[in-house]
Amino acid sequence: MGSQSPQNATVAASYPDSTSGLEHLVKDILKAQKSGDGVRAQQLIDSLILPDYQNWYSAEFDEETAAAGIASYKAGFSSLSLQLARFFLTVQQNQSNVSAVRFGVTCDDNAGDHTFGVLLSRLHSVPLYELRFIKDGHFVRLFALVYVDGGFRIALLPDPEKVSPHRDRVPSRDKAETENNPQVAEGLVQLIRQGGAVTAAKLVQRIQPEYPEIARQERIQGTIRLHAIIGKDGTIRGLRVMSGACSLSKSAYDAVKKWRYSPTTFEGKPVEVDTTIDVIYSLRQ
Fold first, then answer.
1. Is the pTM of this model over 0.70?
2. Which of 9, 52, 104, 138 has its CA 20 to 30 A from that of 146?
3. What pLDDT does residue 187 have?
């Protein structure tokens, strides 16, 4: 599973790693569908399937995101080509204009609310592409596509709201200690779930997030929700943006990762806290 025929590999390699290359590929798919050339359309669509997807996810994303991505690809692998064919057929029938955007470090505020969280989960900042099919000032998006082994591929990326934060691992000296002391091991992994209001009351150092100028200019406001693991010492050990506009999400993430809380104890012992944090941006502030 996850392999690709030499013919499909050749088809994929015909399109360069650029927004224009991706747009060219999609236009060829739509053209083939419209002309009734089902064989050509299917060849192009099949070339979008990720070869060796398990190793690709593991190499490009943190452990939690990779595991979720692999599970999604495995579950949908047998029907993915058909789903893509139906999607492109619908777009072709609606006569939408196609536009591709490339996300590197961050994304634009026309991206979906989960996009920034996905970008943060990358290990090597692999570029992610989004297709936008525009009609009458509105668009339908297809996210994400990546350039792998000489061609564009569809990547099924999990909703950050359903993936736990990728937290710091236990230092090596602690690992050695736990091997000989089960009680210490139990204490190291103890974690409690805590509501955001309770957690907020323990905040002792808050770095004020900056309101991005581009967000002000575009009149963007709203709530950024983050999923955090607060360490036993009150520092942020794991943080993932669950949802929010890209420019605001980056601002919130950069600030919250520096926040400090008073330590939480359970039965007299320090514990980690699993919680959500909301950062509200309002143009009235």
1. yes
2. 138
3. 41
